[in-house]
Amino acid sequence: MIALLGYGKTNQALLKLLNEQKTQCIVLDDCIVEEKKDERGNVFLPSVQRSKISPSLEIPSPGIPPSHPMILDSQNLVSEYDFLLKDQKQIWISGTNGKTTTTEMLEWILRDFGGASGGNIGTPLASLVAQEPKIWILETSSFSLHYTHSVFPNVYLLLPVREDHISWHGSFEAYQKAKLSPLVRMSSACTALIPREFETYDEVLQSQAKIITYESSLDLARAFGFELSKISLSEPFLLDALLALCGAKVLVGRDLSEKLADYRIGAHKIEEFYDQGGRLWVDDSKGTNVDATIWALRAYREKKIYLILGGDDKGADLHPLFEELINYDVEIFGIGSNVSKLQKLSVDFEIPFHPCFQLECAVQEISLRHSLESVALLSPAAASLDQFSSYKERGELFQKMAQVLGKSL
Q1: Domain 2-77, CATH number (from 3.40.50.150, 3.40.190.10, 1.10.1280.10, 3.40.50.720)
Q2: Minimal CA–CA distance to 229: which of 261, 194, 195, 254?
Q3: How far is CA 318 from CA 96, 151, 299, 357, 371, in A?
């Protein structure tokens, strides 16, 4: 019997696939309050009952942390990657910021070659099985990498790695180790593009893969023969584009930069819009860590910035963000579960701070101050799940409220 630990989107798709293959499962989840059985014969149990079962295989939802009692009690743990992936042509994309954009770009430019994306975004891995893509383009989180121990990609694209998910991994070093872990398994037929800062790490030195290091978009353009003038994107999206183009060139042997001409950056990523009064608002709700917020800030260095920060910062050190903020004309409007932490840092760095707690309050307070010369920026440097179902819901509420308040001018 296979046990699925956690019943989020990933394992829901996996259960459906296994049932189609006539395999029954045991599902354990914190949200299940009592034992039940469905019409397919699957058994659903509260997670606290994990010790009562002896499954032959246990597959965790990627978001379940290794400190969870279900994981600690497990004996035969494998990731969905180890369970589902075999000899498919695969390209994995990981890093801290830009994974989703790079993955979307790769799917866009490889769609004529049978490429399809999934994993941490969009289509769950189990659902991608039915599509049978010629090229599997997988956004791969540090959570999935932590639990994966046997399979590896043909091409691995690692974006810059900055502090994130510290509370899940336990330390920044463990987070980095998860990001580098595929390199140890990759063969000499594989290629990895990684930040140069990792070139002396053990995982890199032990790897048999062809490893190409970079510090900038220019490094990648030079290494693969791309002309930056032909790519109409600015940073941070330029780096995402270069990694996508490099990965595609490794896989298909061609320069596909012309296919990016009609690509558009997705929602909630430094997404600019104007209210009816002509004031600039920027929805960067996807900016869920310090590095992402720093990138967003740099685009508006010459303006007065009204910045909404806060949420679940996942235990990250926020000092680098505040060290950046002292170089700007900025006021902070704090929301979410880490308001007190943000307020203390604002006092320490002598940055004006407004404890709003709720996004609605922050937008209202900003609207009273906002002008044609300033910018209102939602780039929280934190996850949204303390108050919202997703960064998307947070961004949509921000845009809706900004437009409503703009009408009242």
Answers
A1: 3.40.50.720
A2: 261
A3: 15, 35, 20, 18, 28
Closest CA to 30 of 17, 47, 7: 47
CA distance 150 to 127: 21
pLDDT of 409: 62
Span 241-250, pLDDT tens digits: 999 999 999 9
Query: Which one is predicted more confidently, 267 or 134?
Result: 134
Q: In DSSP terms, which residues pair with 59 in a beta bridge?
A: 4
The type of residue at 230 is: K
Radius of gyration of the chain (CA): 22
Q: Is 175 helix (H, G, I), strand (E, B) or coil?
A: helix
Would you list the domain boundaries of the chain?
2-77, 86-260, 271-407
Class of 271-407 in CATH:
alpha beta
Per-residue pLDDT tens digits for 128-173: 998 899 999 999 999 999 999 999 999 999 999 988 889 999 999 9
- Pair 280, 307: CB distance under 8 Å: no
Q: 50-108 pLDDT, tens per residue?
A: 988 999 999 999 989 999 999 998 988 999 999 999 989 999 999 998 999 999 999 99
CATH class of 86-260: alpha beta
Instruction: Report the distance separating Cα 51 and Cα 334, nearest Å.
Output: 42
- pLDDT for residue 324: 95
